[in-house]
Fold this protein.
Amino acid sequence: MKINAPAKVNIFLKITGHRDGYHTLSSRFMRVDDLYDTIEFVPCECETFTLEGFENVPLESNTIYKAYKALNEHTGDLDILEFFHHHKVVVTKRIPTQAGLGGGSSDAGAFMRLVHEVCDLKISINRLADIGSTVGADVPFFVYGYPSANVKGFGEIVLPFEEPPLPLELLTPPEIACNTAEVYLTFHKHLLRNIDPASHFGWENLDSRTLLRIVPDPAALNDLFPPAMMICPELEKYNKNGWFFSGSGSTFFRVKG
């Protein structure tokens, strides 16, 4: 029992407001199928939920464990508890952390999809995504598994966008890790007052290739690029023509060819 957990990039990411202590957004997520973690359920007699593949990460803070707890809490399905008494979760990590590629959220979403299948959960994919939203803002996108989608609100609104997948090249500086919470805090402190809803009017209707062509400025496409540069100024040497910035960083991407 195995599933791939693919990375994603943000073609654009615009902050639209702040509510209940969190930022709302409007974004285009695009799945990157050739970069993925692998999650496998391996037979094992386990006294407690057992997760392998993460070094120096406390179990309680791992997104997969949070997803496991959320599934138990929201479904009350005893088959989940029984299943993980007889299986452990083994993860092969390939997606770099703190890189704006959604690795932790993808792991949680893929885990939930696989549990949904193997435990034959009697809930809809929409309900599964709702549960995923309690784990993390990006998790619903990965639960649905769309190749491309417009994502809004706190990440709970996921609208599939029909377009051919783009051949993407990724560049993740190995020496730079952007802390998502710090990037958002910096945006809130210095840039929240400058948000302009009209700045991205109609973007959700444009295909990603066209959007990247007509808006070539990574700072215009991604509101989190300026605050990421504030806290990680070394990103500047990777800020080159034709490259764009994903999420809260530190990955840049461009279209091949």
